[in-house]
Structure formats: C-alpha cells, structure tokens
Amino acid sequence: EVSKNANAFKTTSPKFSQIEQALGMWIGTAEQRQLILIGKVICQKALEFAALLGVSESDFKASDEAESALIEFLPQFREELKDFLKLYEPRDIFNADECGLFYCMEPNTSLLTSVRKDGTEKIKPLVINKSCMPLAFRYEEITLHNQLPVDYYHNEKAWMHQDIFK
Question: Where is the DDE-1 domain (predicted)?
C-alpha cells in the first residue's frame, strides 16, 4: 500500500549492530586513506566481521543495496502504483531523480532533476555540494544563486534532505 502521508517514515535498528559498527569503522578508515570502496568489497568485509564475531553464514547475509530489493514484489507494486497515479492528472505528477556524481567514490555532489509526467514543465536542476563556494567560482564574479542555470545548496555530506526538497 502506498502511503499518502509525506512525513511517514519507519526506523529500524540493525539486526547485527556489532557487525554494523565494525564495518562503519573500517569504512571510515578506508575513506581516510582515500581508498575506493565498491559494494562487493564492503560485503566481503562484512562477512569477515560476521565470522570474527561468531555469526554463522546461515544467519547473516551481506548484500549491497541493489541486491537487497525484493524483485518478486515488483509486479504487484507497479500495479498498485498505476492505480494510485490514476487519481491524479498527468500535469500534477512529477518524476524526480537524485544521483551522486562520481563513479566508485564517495560523492561530494548530488544532482536532482525533475519533470512533469506530461512533459510540459522541467524543473531547474538542483545541485547539492559539500562546499559553500566551490573552488571554481571563488575567483569569478559569480553569485551562485543568481547566475547559474541550477539551484545550488550545500551541506556536510552533499545529500538531499527534507528541508532542501521542500
């Protein structure tokens, strides 16, 4: 069922918090050393930590985000989504997509694009960076919010959050 409450969210605690903590510390150390981490390497390290902590392979499965989706529920979800979207006019439906820039690295810039379903309006792209004033603009007379063809925001992790999305 699709929630109509935009503020609804569910928080859960990790089932294997010791593995989560060990993996988090390991990732932090790897990032300080400027190592490039990919999903398979992180999964392998999680399995190693599980073994060190005495968690059996049958109890713990490491997977990256793409592997964790339950594909068998996808057709049912698509039908429910189609029924839900029938309640609205195409001009009232937007498709938005956020992505982090840089392949196999911790992104320091996020990009959000959005367009109406009927194609009549494209929203100005939104860029989120870690830097308040990117180095490329420091020596130019550019006012970020007035002269760029994008909306520009910054925060510590260059992530989209609720305040920006509003």
Answer: 116-165
